Amino acid sequence: MIITRKGISPLIAAVLLIAFTMAIAAILTTWISNFTTDQKEKTQVFEEKIDCVYQSIRADPDFARINMSTKIFQDYVVNTGSVDVELTGFQVWIDDTPIKPYKMNGTLPKESGVDVNLNLSIPLAGGGELTQIKFTTRCEAVSTTVWKPVSGWAKLTGTITEFNGPI
């Protein structure tokens, strides 16, 4: 009795092997591309969070003052951190009630301070008393708040030609 073994030809086997290899390569290429993109995005988020650790700001309550006729509020904000801080907005409280946040743009260089002048004519238009202002940054945990002193806000005199916000 003669036993004959049948199989696929070497040519077909080579073609199947190459096709299988190319399919695996395409799958791996797609996966690696997506993986590296995800890792790059996560790295950027972590870099921003790490940068926030080195940020710190403080508003000077002794310098806070307001001109009630022009509705200009002025305070001195100090960057006490070791990196530049981007001021992104402020929120006003009228009669201890928060009013919608306003956007602003400004950068505080590290270990320095700046006079911040705010036009509060819109939030103060409805009347009421300014009770506090919170300055916010790009980092959620980095902010500073100035409360109305017991003796009241200091009076701002003189003319301010340039001011920031509300934008």
Looking at this protein, list some descriptive labels.
167 residues, alpha+beta, Immunoglobulin-like, 2 domains, five-stranded mixed beta sheet, five-stranded antiparallel beta sheet, 1 helix, 10 strands, 26% helix, 33% strand, rod-shaped
CA-atom Rg in angstroms? 31 Å
Class inferred from helices and paired strands? alpha+beta
CATH architecture of the largest domain: Sandwich
Count of alpha and pi helical runs: 1
Low-confidence sequence ranges: 160-167
Major β-sheet annotation = 5 strands, mixed
End-to-end distance: 96 Å
Helix content: 25-40%
Shape: rod-shaped
CATH topology of the largest domain: Immunoglobulin-like
Mean pLDDT: 86
Description:
This protein is α+β, with helices and mostly antiparallel strands and 167 residues long. The chain has 2 domains: 9-53; 57-155, Sandwich (Immunoglobulin-like). The chain contains 1 helix and 10 strands. The strands form 2 sheets. Strands 1, 2, 3, 7 and 10 form a 5-stranded mixed beta sheet that branches. Strands 4, 5, 6, 8 and 9 form a 5-stranded antiparallel beta sheet that branches. Residues 160-167 have low confidence and may be disordered.
Detail the topology: elements first, then pairings.
Elements: H1 10-53, E1 57-59, E2 65-67, E3 72-79, E4 85-94, E5 97-98, E6 102-108, E7 113-119, E8 130-137, E9 143-147, E10 154-155
Parallel strand pairs: 2-10
Antiparallel strand pairs: 1-3, 2-3, 3-7, 4-5, 4-6, 4-8, 8-9
What's a concise summary of this model?
The protein is α+β, with helices and mostly antiparallel strands and 167 residues long. Helices cover 26% and strands 33% of the residues.
